[in-house]
Amino acid sequence: SFPMSALEDHKTQVLLLRGDSDTIGKEATTALSQVLHAANVPISFVTPKVDLQIDGGVTQEVVDLFSETRVAVKGPYFTPISSKSESLNIQIRRTFDLFANVVHAYNMPGVHTRHKGVDIVMIRENTEGEYSGLEHSVVPGVVESLKIITEEKSMRIAQYAFQYALANNRKKVTAVHKANIMKSADGLFLECCRTVANKYPFIHFESMIVDNTCMQLASRPQQFDVMVMPNLYGNIVTGIATGLVGGPGLVPGVNVGMCGAVFEQGSRHAAKSLAGRGVANPTATILSGALMLRYLKMNDHADRIEKAVTTLFRETNYRTRDMVLDDSHKDLSTQDFTKAVIDHLETS
Amino acid sequence: STATTAAAPSQYTVTLFPGDGIGPEIAESVKRIFNAADVPITWDTHIIDVHAAKPGEDLISKEALDSVRRNGFGLKGPMATPIGKGHRSLNLTLRKELGLYANVRPCVSIPGVDTLYHDVDVVTVRENTEGEYSGLEHVVFPGVVESLKVITRDASMRVCEYAFEYAIQNNRKRVTAVHKASVMKLSDGLFLECANEVAERHKDSGIEFQTLLIDNAASLLVSNPALLDVMVMPNLYGDIISDLCAGLIGGLGLTPSGNMGTGCMLAEAVHGTAPDIVGQNRANPTALLMSALMMLRHMQLRPQAQLIERSVYTVLQEGVVRTGDIGGTSTTTEYTDAIIRKMDQLRAS
Ligand SMILES: Nc1ncnc2c1ncn2[C@@H]1O[C@H](COP(=O)(O)OP(=O)(O)OP(=O)(O)O)[C@@H](O)[C@H]1O
Ligand SMILES: Nc1ncnc2c1ncn2[C@@H]1O[C@H](COP(=O)(O)OP(=O)(O)OP(=O)(O)O)[C@@H](O)[C@H]1O
Ligand SMILES: [Mg+2]
Ligand SMILES: [Mg+2]
User: Fold this and answer.
1) pTM of structure
2) In this predicted complex, what is the ipTM?
3) Which of A145, A248, B185, B339 could form a disulfide with B149 if both were Cys (CB 3.0 to 4.6 A apart)?
4) What HEC string does A175-194 produce?
């Protein structure tokens, strides 16, 4: 599957935002760039002279670079909960209006999981909802937080979901909501999904309340195909699906907008406890890179890289620490695992 | 010291709402099992006729609510609020009138019930009065809706206190506060601050404390549920996580639920009225029974709760007698009889 491209011309320069050193970003994006290099992919990375800082916001340099490349690979930036500033990750999405977060979770042969046959694409509204940043303290000890749902953004994400389903030959779209409680807000989201669904009679549409959705994901995840949802439910559902197929180290993702796309791990966590230790699993980032190549219409390169990863899991016992189940697995460092991926690249 | 601990009363009265649909059938099963186990409970039964209530009127009478307040304990089967008649929802009435501030849902893998998860033993403690369920929404202008989530210090402290109290009472090891304070810095931030404060107060209790982002908690639950124990969280997250946990162990037909109120506890089955099987003697009473066992433990009637629970688990594990919803062919009566027989055996041995 591929995120639909807004680009007509082929870019060869890609912006690299490596994430900060409190995260696994540097190691994971280094792994990706090594794989791309070894695979002779004709793209080059540009990095900002001054990397983004927690309290510094998205800099003009990064804005300029992205408006040039329109495509970026990104590691996570860590924002402590105690920090007053909004997370840089959220600011990047908002600055470039990357309205859709697309995460594809599927079982890979050789990766042990409880559930088999999971193949879910989650399309998540990425700019509003509970992530609007609108909160205030009414009186001491009482806080109000605003969730914003708009027709414009709900229509946009619903349209993206159905277009995606059509382009990728998917059969069903499930809208996830809590309209029985949030009658106006989630009601509006659901109504927009229904409106769009009517224009796609060949794609089956259903809606499901978020708590039931999560129960179904835990017991019968095979029933889901494409899912479309507001921001927070998207975060939770993506977390579950990621857990189902082997964990955050495996699942790729992308944030897409009208003016470009930013590729990163599907689970956008800092993995702070792993940072700088050389044990992170680079698979999710490498596969995000393959998604990027599809976005850039370099499908052959994408196929080759995805194949190297799947072959590695299917035919070897090489794993990073997060995937080591028992003695039958060989616990490799990020670097050695990346080398193993490179060794499995078929000669083109 | 013994002077401060009141002796548990020897006889309890419990308000029973059998409910609609399969409610009366499963309530009957619970009553028979409790009777056979010599549980010292007298039932004060209130039949709520949801169809008799006048439009706009509350479905649960003042008398019924007073009964729960007086007795301190209630057990409720499934009931459905008739839609479009202008009634306040049953759950809302109960929650407001009884001050039910925390919803507690233990989920334990049940031996013999075939799921992919055999290592689940978690408890969701859900804040039950505020959060996203404030009902405050408005259209700012056409096409733009704001929905208000309210988090208060009082409600957060109270539910976190209860989570620790529950953990201590039930010999649990760890409390995990689940939140999204990375994004909702003020609201979930306040919840998290309260959780930390309560944890600090209980640091000598031997209960460990940990915090987790909601998506990480959800991810862990489906990949490695053994890593979680008691979890406490705001309303919506509790709604989602408790259902997720139920999904791990085989659905709502097996999971108990208890609501803690000011001076009372209301145990309930969270599944629906199952209109498709009403009156056919096919309903699974396990969820209501397990909820009633939570209540027994709260009453310090642990030996009886233990005996009944072991009997239920043994019957389910043997797999000979089980109801249709979990792959068997037995009737509600046969299942109830099997549990009672098993109790007699366990008591004799
Ligand atoms: N690329 C990766 N490879 C291996 N494990 C990963 C990867 N990305 C995330 N994880 C794991 O997913 C989990 C969630 O990451 P997250 O950053 O939220 O938590 P964490 O590592 O405990 O960091 P923190 O100190 O911020 O709590 C962590 O346990 C982390 O180890
Ligand atoms: N205690 C139970 N024993 C056996 N089957 C059950 C039980 N609870 C639920 N079920 C089954 O699960 C199905 C769905 O459950 P549930 O009753 O919650 O939804 P419902 O049929 O929509 O009823 P309601 O509208 O009252 O919630 C039912 O059709 C029923 O067959
Ligand atoms: Mg983290
Ligand atoms: Mg629910």
Assistant:
1) 0.88
2) 0.84
3) A145
4) EEECCCCCCCHHHHHHHHHH
